[in-house]
């Protein structure tokens, strides 16, 4: 399912997606939605097959805050002329994060408060313990049984592979950093007060993150020694594939069968696809879904 609106990266963000947001597909059947979208079960159920598996990704809330601060230039908007703007912000978080300011910049959604929860459909202005929040927590954790944890991506991918009965080739990924951004306060240490304030300020994010992180390690523990061996095998194969595609992208490299994967060969086409970014995939998938409409909109 590809966005059909003005923003090619998202579905009606920051609002809930609507049925008219999707790029039309020949036959009317979608099978994957991977773009930015706020979780809205009704829309997904209306456009996706009944057996759709829902998965999301989260990162530690404090790291997410730092990333959002940098991406949206909040240190400039808040006039935080400091080597550690996150520290200053969190020491006085309720003074800085006023609704009027956020409405002005971000159409009512707050990038510093429960942002990851907002993506999963929560009212980000509420807190843990609120009845509406608790009810939505029960619904989300039931509808989205598994979430990838960015800090433990390899473990998350192996669990996903096992859950969906995928092949190891389905979870290989390009090691090239696509969205890595350096900023001067990325590794700045924070006081205990600042960290406690953030936990209170984004309590839903922390609760969700800790729930899914715990779920991940429960699944890892169930796999025992076999999981540890498969994880090592995946990391080795991912490293070998990336190294081959870097050194000899037009050549081929064969892998023998193991207890976790069939015999297969990396070829030039696989290396090419491994390097594709989202924009290239969007174009290819749009042509596959509805080539006639794609050409009408963008030309040959």
TrEMBL record:
Subcellular location(s) per record: Golgi apparatus membrane
GO biological process: glycolipid biosynthetic process
Protein name in UniProt: Galactosylceramide sulfotransferase-like
UniProt similarity note: Belongs to the galactose-3-O-sulfotransferase family.
UniProt entry keywords in alphabetical sequence: Glycoprotein, Golgi apparatus, Membrane, Signal-anchor, Transferase, Transmembrane, Transmembrane helix
An annotated Gene Ontology molecular function: galactosylceramide sulfotransferase activity
Gene Ontology annotations for the cellular component aspect, listed alphabetically: Golgi membrane
Entries under InterPro entries matching the protein: Gal-3-0_sulfotransfrase, P-loop_NTPase
Highest taxon listed in the record's lineage: Eukaryota
Gene: LOC118423670
UniProt entry tagged with the keyword Protein biosynthesis: no
Topology term for the membrane: Single-pass type II membrane protein
């Amino acid at each position: 399912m590809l966005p059909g609106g003005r923003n090619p990266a998202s579905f009606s963000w920051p609002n809930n997606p609507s049925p008219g947001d999707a790029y039309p597909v020949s036959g009317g059947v979608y099978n994957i939605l991977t773009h930015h979208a706020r979780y809205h079960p009704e829309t997904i159920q209306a456009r996706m097959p009944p057996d759709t598996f829902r998965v999301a990704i989260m990162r530690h809330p404090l790291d997410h805050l730092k990333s959002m601060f940098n991406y949206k230039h909040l240190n400039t908007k808040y006039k935080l002329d400091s080597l550690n703007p996150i520290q200053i912000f969190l020491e006085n978080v309720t003074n800085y994060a006023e609704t009027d300011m956020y409405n002005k910049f971000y159409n009512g959604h707050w990038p510093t408060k429960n942002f990851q929860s907002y993506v999963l459909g929560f009212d980000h202005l509420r807190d843990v313990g609120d009845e509406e929040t608790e009810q939505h927590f029960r619904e989300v954790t039931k509808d989205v049984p598994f979430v990838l944890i960015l800090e433990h991506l390899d473990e998350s991918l192996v669990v996903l592979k096992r859950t969906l009965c995928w092949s190891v080739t389905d979870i290989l990924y390009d090691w090239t950093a696509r969205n890595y951004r350096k900023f001067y306060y990325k590794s700045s240490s924070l006081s205990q007060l600042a960290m406690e304030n953030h936990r209170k300020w984004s309590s839903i994010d922390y609760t969700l993150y800790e729930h899914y992180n715990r779920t991940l390690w429960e699944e890892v523990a169930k796999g025992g020694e076999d999981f540890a061996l498969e994880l090592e095998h995946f990391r080795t194969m991912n490293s070998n594939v990336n190294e081959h595609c870097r050194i000899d992208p037009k050549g081929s490299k064969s892998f023998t069968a193991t207890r976790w994967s069939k015999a297969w060969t990396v070829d030039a086409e696989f290396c090419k696809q491994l390097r594709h970014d989202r924009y290239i995939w969007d174009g290819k998938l749009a042509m596959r879904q509805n080539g006639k409409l794609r050409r009408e909109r963008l030309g040959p």
